[in-house]
């Protein structure tokens, strides 16, 4: 070999050595692929990548991400199965030619150990840091505020019963929560549970003595439900018929254990030139009739009410029962009355009128302005010694819209009052002439009414009603009423009233004018 050839070969070897020295470590060919091992236990897990030949590993942490770079390629190792094999430990994995990015699950700690053949990552649950007592108290207070405003929202949306349950839970955890106690009183009051509402208001006043809103709310509640005695005296004149002087004395007495006694005594003095007797004779009547009614009213825990009544009048003794179901926006009542003294007909006043009745009624508050009521019943009328002289079905209802809720409370209402007589007994008198002992008559009265009420002063209020009644089966005409109430002293109320209507129940359609006075004593 010549000297020139030897020099050229040496230069070539030197250049090759330089190129090999400059080649990166990961560009060198790998003898084989990496091997993957995953182990999952209850409280620990492990992720391992290893090669059969030495490998260099670079580790970098970026938040929850763990970045691994190797001096050898990964090969065809099945890294895409890692999130499935280490479920709840690894949320995600990304990988490329010689790099891996692991994303451990929240709350998982990773201990990384690189070795000459690869890397092992031991996974464990991070122990939760126990919050300080101050932080725990702040969290509880924040949750109470959230729950309180949830209850307020429920109340505003008409979900009073769920709001009441939420407030009870709040008070079970913190009995000294004045806001929740006061709101519970409002919820109980809206559900008709006035005794429970008064107890809640008392509890709130113990926590915030003298709070004006609570004092006012409790005063209004007790005013509406306090024990009381009421006296009504009315004068009623039916055109071309009778004159009546009606005195009613009644009251409500709390007995305890969610039970109260209601009672009423009524006396009617009647003057009429011709009143039909049971045998068909027409004779003047100038006399008085009296009826007594007493009832035990019990409020059950789950918004139900039972009323057991007894009735008494000359030659008449009866009883009745009514059961009511309340919800957030309405009430349904069903009941019966047997041998209830009935003074709806003049013949019933004179001859010991009575009525047997089955009925169903419902009232519903549809929205802030709309309310609805309807009912149906079956009646059997009689006189002393004759219980079945007439039978009828009744349908009643009303749809009311509040025109103005602030200032004078104004509303307009459609009212239906219908009675359809299906049977009415006919008899003959001593002269052989036919007569009807109890002249029940079919009526179907559709009325449109406008009502206004407001306070003239702090202790003086008025109410007025004006409307027109159309009887599809009889005569029609205007109707109206006005009343004035004055409270001269605490617990004492005096009232005056007057009204004009038609006596459609008697079948005469005669105009009826009435006036009366009221005295109420609350104690």
Automatic annotation (TrEMBL):
Q: Which SUPFAM superfamilies match?
A: TPR-like
Highest taxon, organism lineage: Bacteria
Q: Which residues form the signal peptide?
A: 1-27
Pfam hit, one: TPR_16
Q: Which InterPro entries match?
A: TPR-like_helical_dom_sf (IPR011990), TPR_rpt (IPR019734)
Q: Where are the TPR repeats?
A: 178-211
Keywords, A to Z?
Answer: Plasmid, Signal, TPR repeat
Does the keyword field hold Signal? yes
Q: Does the keyword Phosphoprotein apply?
A: no
The protein here is known as Uncharacterized protein
- The organism of origin for this protein: Azospirillum lipoferum (strain 4B)
* Upper classification of the organism: Bacteria, Pseudomonadati, Pseudomonadota, Alphaproteobacteria, Rhodospirillales
